[in-house]
Write a structure and sequence with these properties.
- By secondary structure, the chain is of the alpha/beta class.
- The protein folds into two domains: 136 residues, Rossmann fold (3-Layer(aba) Sandwich); 101 residues, LytTr DNA-binding domain (OB fold (Dihydrolipoamide Acetyltransferase, E2P), Beta Barrel).
- Helix content is 30%, strand content 31%.
- It contains seven helices and 15 strands.
- The strands form four sheets. It has a five-stranded parallel sheet, sandwiched between helices.
- Strand 9 and strand 10 form a beta hairpin.
- The longest helix is centred in the N-terminal third of the chain and has 14 residues.
């Protein structure tokens, strides 16, 4: 019997390791022949190993999961790993691809594995229609119905913590990382602030500085320092956040 092979492409190392571990338990016959931390590496592994299956994070640096899937179309079976419901539902409705939502549950992964086992006996589907629908799904949604990022996987020491966006007081760019600050503490993610601006609900998270996004529900008020600069006071944090001149208009009614 030929051993099925797979590649896992996920930019967060801990999540990638968790997926490998869960697949090892649910599908021990599956050989993981490559792991990619970005889309470019995933494309390289696709050409090198020609796997039966690819597990693709939709949001990856270098090349997105959608871009990788276009190259994998007709060559292997694809499962998207996504934090966005609208991506997942659109992909599933096309029937050509499967999905698992982050955080990955064993039950949902089991369902995806069961479907993959059935599909391995058939040629991989062409994904053009599904991918075109996925690419336009988020952009075509009205602003008031669009599904925004609902949680963050952030590093706290050697551990990864799941933090819902409602818990977050603010995000702040910090060298190669972005600080995720809550009322209880802080953590780090590698996602740049400019990507978060696109993925978070702009009605909830306000950019007040080129390096700072604040949760509007965490704002206690605003004040000015002795130099006349505007500062945001927070409900659950002692520090204040500087508002740059280009964003002071948000607070004119306060």
């Amino acid at each position: 019997m030929i051993t099925p092979t797979a590649i896992i492409a996920e930019d967060e190392a801990t999540l990638r390791a968790q997926l490998v571990e869960q697949l090892g338990q649910l599908w021990p016959e599956l050989a993981i022949v490559g792991e990619a931390a970005d889309g470019v590496q995933a494309l390289r592994l696709l050409d090198e190993h020609r796997p039966d299956v690819m597990f693709l994070d939709i949001q990856m640096p270098g090349a997105t999961g959608l871009e990788v899937a276009r190259q994998a179309s007709g060559r292997c079976h694809v499962v998207f790993v996504t934090a966005y419901d609208q991506h997942a539902v659109a992909a599933f409705d096309q029937g050509a691809v499967d999905y698992v939502l982050k955080p990955v549950s064993a039950a949902r992964l089991f369902t995806a594995v069961s479907r993959l086992k059935q599909r391995l006996g058939t040629p991989p589907a062409r994904l053009d229609a599904a991918l075109n629908g996925l690419a336009g799904a988020r952009a075509s949604l009205p602003a008031d119905t669009r599904q925004y990022l609902r949680w963050i996987n952030a590093s706290v020491g050697q551990n990864v913590k799941l933090i819902t966006v409602d818990e977050i007081s603010y995000f702040q760019a910090d060298s190669k990382y972005t600080r995720v600050v809550t009322g209880e503490g802080e953590a780090l993610i590698r996602k740049p602030l400019k990507e978060l601006v696109e993925e978070l609900d702009p009605n909830q998270f306000w950019q007040i500085h080129r390096s700072t996004l604040v949760n509007a529900t965490s704002i206690a008020g605003v004040t000015r320092d002795f130099r006349g600069r505007m500062l945001v006071k927070l409900k659950s944090r002692p520090e204040t956040l500087l508002v740059s001149d280009s964003y002071t208009h948000r607070f004119r009614q306060m």
